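User: Predict the complex.
Assistant: Input components as received:
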Amino acid sequence: MKKGLIFLFVFFAFIESRAQVKQPNIILFLVDDMGWQDCSLPFWDKPTKLNAIYHTPNMQKLAAKGMMLTNAYSNAVCTPTRVSLMTGMNVARHGVTNWTNVNSNTPTDFKDSILKPANWNYNGLTPERFYSEALNHTVVATPLPQILNEAGYYTIHAGKAHFAPTGLPGASPVNMGFDINIGGSAAGHPGSFLASKNYRQNEKDTSWAVRGLEKYIPEDLYLTEAITREAIHTLDNRNSNKPFFLYLSHYAVHVPYDKDIRFYQQYIDAGLTDTEAKYAALVEGMDKSLGDIMHYLEKNGLDKDTYILFTSDNGGLSLKGSRSGEPHTQNLPLKQGKGSLYEGGIRVPMIAAGPQIKPGSVSKQYIVSEDYFTTILQMANANPKKVKQVVDGKSFLPVLQGKQKNVDAQKTIIWHYPNNWTNVNLKGISWASAIRQGDWKLIYFHKQQTLELYNLSKDIAEQQDLSGIEIAKTKLLAQLLTQKLKERNAAMPSWLSTGQTIAWPNEIFELSNTNQVIK
Amino acid sequence: MKKGLIFLFVFFAFIESRAQVKQPNIILFLVDDMGWQDCSLPFWDKPTKLNAIYHTPNMQKLAAKGMMLTNAYSNAVCTPTRVSLMTGMNVARHGVTNWTNVNSNTPTDFKDSILKPANWNYNGLTPERFYSEALNHTVVATPLPQILNEAGYYTIHAGKAHFAPTGLPGASPVNMGFDINIGGSAAGHPGSFLASKNYRQNEKDTSWAVRGLEKYIPEDLYLTEAITREAIHTLDNRNSNKPFFLYLSHYAVHVPYDKDIRFYQQYIDAGLTDTEAKYAALVEGMDKSLGDIMHYLEKNGLDKDTYILFTSDNGGLSLKGSRSGEPHTQNLPLKQGKGSLYEGGIRVPMIAAGPQIKPGSVSKQYIVSEDYFTTILQMANANPKKVKQVVDGKSFLPVLQGKQKNVDAQKTIIWHYPNNWTNVNLKGISWASAIRQGDWKLIYFHKQQTLELYNLSKDIAEQQDLSGIEIAKTKLLAQLLTQKLKERNAAMPSWLSTGQTIAWPNEIFELSNTNQVIK
């Protein structure tokens, strides 16, 4: 019996010491190209027409278990958001202002007749340990998974990476500090979501192939399902003495809208076009994945110790050709969509659940991509001694845990998109910078050389430009935006005609208020 | 206190139930192209000149902890051995009789002026679940890792796979039932062992690139070291409630002999040529990997519960150009080398350590590649209900555990190489079938249409052909070889001149003993 007592003592001492250093598991569930209303869960003060179309019961379940952030933002396109998530740097600072090509040294901007895009970091993110003087057009930083890994986390990448072009160190999630990479590469979308196409485009050009999931082909699993199964399989085989960080970054709901036959027909029956039914099915498949992950956590008693952060990397796609209906209307009442700094391009769903987050709670605190870096490090209690980059993100963990009750209306978020995303020549798509502080948002349109000011609490649709009325607010935000852009060494577009970089937003303010125009 | 007692009871009950189903860990440490004497550990009754050249202290340490098998065999080239390991099928039955190309539908045989190679399975191994009528020139089987995986094992592939060409299901270790794939693909050798070359050949043709190890590039790690570190990293992050199967299948010591500066100079100082010093350094780097794995097991208290099986996939390379010195002499006293059914091509090192294996023991029992499949399943206590293939392998676990004291001299092993490996037109290289029973070995040379008989206990160098003297033994073995080849549906070469398949070995015996010759 004496032996037993000693054993007990040792055992409890062990439990105790583990409790002291307990770190929660963290799941960042990132959806690709999902709009703010592309779900049955309303992120506004009322359900919208779009909310009535989609079926996402698991998002609803997660919201019931945690907190919705109704003013969550991303960047306007994917790689900028992903680099911000991984580095905590604002897009103006990291300079990966547009999506990166699968090929290195190849900017992705469409040709324009008026502006030359900024000299941006089109070679994407380079993890610190691969730093070399020879690399150009790249931002070097200490990535989130590496910090978590060094803090004792088992780090899993599942799905889309898209941090840098093929062949560069940032293309490989294992170089970012992920212990495991499931299907991530330089590709910004899958060749195909279909097992019957081997999750790849064709045999000649396999740049967009999703690799390592071949074992799910005989079961004919849709890519979203295959990634989820493999992620759960990896969790199931992990060392449970370590906390885990799962970056479940779905290729869904980006194009190609391959038909997911599990969910498609009901949307056709509901009267949607073929394209929109495919899109809605892609959304529902993503939601099922969320449900499967939640179920796995519950079944294994992990849900209490695990944070789930759910969000998207930019607003919903609203381009002609890809979506049905009139272009740029797919996110109404939000204006425009992916590629724009109007709300349609940057406002995204956001739900968080986990330790000390009150079930069924809601916050209007506005947050943005780089804030996740700092938030996750705080959740993990991981304070890296040295991080190569200047971190712009602010932790919103106090918001999630109810320690910060009121909206911090002094917080500023800036966006910067000095690129030409696509061939649409429409004010709002591409070529802009913006700032939000409190309820106010100022947008600087690079090509038009104009400023617009909106009060989002009253005008989420951005219909009433108040820049000519709220002069003081316009001036203040133009100055603040200018200051932030300069502070972060933001690269600016230039005029093709003169080669000169465009004016700063505060200069635009001064000029428009003295009735001058510069070009 | 009552709670404590209940807790103790529950805890011990748990220990008890785990003990009942306890399965050992298993490591299959496979070296590529390593000859029988390419180490400081003699696998003969005396040390040889070659043994004096190489430094492999960790192989010696492993042998001291376990058993050496001095009559261990493989096939004459790599893929045939690997397919036998994975399926338990003899090479004549699985029909992947030569190494597979990185491209599908592309046999690897050199053109010959006399014989047409057998219609072999040049599309390699297809795991059962990928079975489809459409696949041709492939063998479909239930692979070892899948069976182990289903029996509760965590299965890790590290290093060279080479089971099937690119794009086919067998190319991907995850399709074979491995939970984790570190660096395995369709490639039979690495583009480069050097981090400075990113472990790949060049940027245009990356078919031989070893992927997923980019994080070791900044430290400039040699490929052998990078694979070992990643394998240990994976073990360290595993779920320790599961037993593991680690298939550590080194790219070493295959060409290219890239200089490993950690070990190279001492061999130059000892008077070796540049080529041979590079080769010896490659061997020593592989031995360090073995040592690192053993150290990891010891440090984590796993060595008592873990089997290590160490062997090679074929005999040492002895071709002109690749090795220094006179070709086909690099394995003396063994005749010829890789690609031959003389002992130089098929006799390999073999050490096994683990539960119930007596330290410092030696067995002369002859074994071959397909026997590992059955042995490992017996070690794992995994009895699959259904296996697609007919299994030829016999477990040698009773030998290892000392339960079978004497050599089973009735055991037969057959080899079958109806292919043209390379451009060397020399009897012994390519084009042969062979059988061993007891001390006797009969070789059938397809092109020469002759039989040779050797007594290996007296003549390991195969210098004295006894086929004209030991007529009865020759007849018996020719019949037995014929019977086994027919039973296993062995594909035979054919005469280019007539299109007819070559004769069976028993026909050769009959003809040579009635003084006739057929062509």
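Confidence is low (pLDDT under 50) at residues 1-20 of chain A.
Let me know if you want any component modeled separately.
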